[in-house]
Amino acid sequence: MIKSDRNPTENKRWIPSWGSWLVVGIIVLGIAGINAYTGHVEEEPHGSPPNYGVSAVHLPDTLYFAGERMPLEQFDTRESLDRELLVNTYFHSQTLLLIKRSGRYFPVIEPILRKYGVPDDFKYLAIAESGLSNAVSPAGAVGFWQFLAGTAREYGLEVNDEVDERYHLEKSTEAACRYFIDSYDVYGNWTMVAASYNNGRRGLDQQVVIQKQHSYYDLLLNEETARYIFRLAALKVIMVSPEEYGFYFQASDLYPVIPTYEEVVDTPVENFADFANNRGTNYKILKYFNPWLRKPYLSNRTGKTYRIRLPEPGARIVGEGGRGPEPGITG
């Protein structure tokens, strides 16, 4: 018997079932409905955002960092700023948290910058370095200003097992200011001072020699330092005009300055838990205001004078009488 190459089912005619017709009908009606709906919707003009969406951010025509003009007429400078504005605008939770923290810590940092004649914009370095927190980097840099131990000691901070003043906001800010002033004597402009704080003077100096350029905006630098000044500028732009970049809050939403007083200590402290309890607070809160005290005791064999900060009575309680001065953000 000779077998045919044709499939036996090829001669059978397919007859759709009622279920198949139902599916086809639904699809046809759906397409018709979509066409009818879209036919009544006017297309939004290009560049006009809906009520909620992701849109391009506003770039200022002119911008100064630390009193020095950024050359935004240059495409690479302008696009670098645009990148950092986008990143920090749409990193909503982190940027809002930084804005909230600024209410507590900028009032501490700003007067110290003024005292040393350092531009106010350098407060944004503390955000870029540590997020306004006592961060510890993998390289061992510590505190708001991210000092390595050797540099901290060079600029007058005490660093040992019991006391580490890199965690002391006021003292570390003063040390950072002394570093900035020394760097300004080298570079003669604040933009390069800020870049050197991120890259290190030696590393920045090497690139100046190799590339034969003295302007930050004309130097090819490592990724982090190349973005650094633009991140500072973006933070400034957003924090000075937060609503323009989609951040809405009231002054009361910012973390306030907590009222405190200082107690002078020039003797050993055997137990800081007892020390705190005897002063109407506790170990946790004492360490919150004095993170530079690294142990639960203080040997103080030399009789050195230390100033320990403690909260005013009732200052821990949120509400009337328990908040510090109204916080605010200045440009």
Description:
It is a single chain. The chain is mainly α. It folds into 2 domains: 64-253, Orthogonal Bundle (Lysozyme); 260-311. Helix content is 44%, strand content 5%. It is built from 11 helices and 4 strands; from the N terminus they run H-E-E-H-H-H-H-H-H-H-H-E-H-H-E. The protein has helices at residues 18-38, 75-90, 92-116, 123-130, 149-154, 169-187, 190-199, 201-211, 223-240, 272-277, 283-289, and strands spanning 64-65, 68-69, 260-265, 306-311. A hairpin with a 2-residue loop joins strand 1 and strand 2. Helix 3 (92-116) packs across helix 6, helix 6 (169-187) packs across helix 7 (190-199) and helix 7 (190-199) packs across helix 9. The protein is globular and about 60 Å long. The termini are far apart. 27% of the residues are buried. Residues 1-16, 34-49 and 321-328 have low confidence and may be disordered.
Question: Could you state the order of secondary-structure elements as H and E?
Answer: HEEHHHHHHHHEHHE
How are the strands of the biggest sheet laid out side by side? 1-2
In terms of per-residue confidence, which ranges show pLDDT below 50 for 5 or more consecutive residues?
1-16, 34-49, 321-328
Fraction in beta strands: under 5%
Please compute the radius of gyration using only Cα atoms.
30 Å
Query: What is the CATH architecture term of the largest domain?
Result: Orthogonal Bundle
Task: Work out the helix count.
Answer: 11
Q: Describe the main β-sheet briefly.
A: 2 strands, antiparallel
Q: How much helix is in the residues?
A: 40-55%
CATH class of the largest domain: Mainly Alpha
Give the beta-strand count: 4
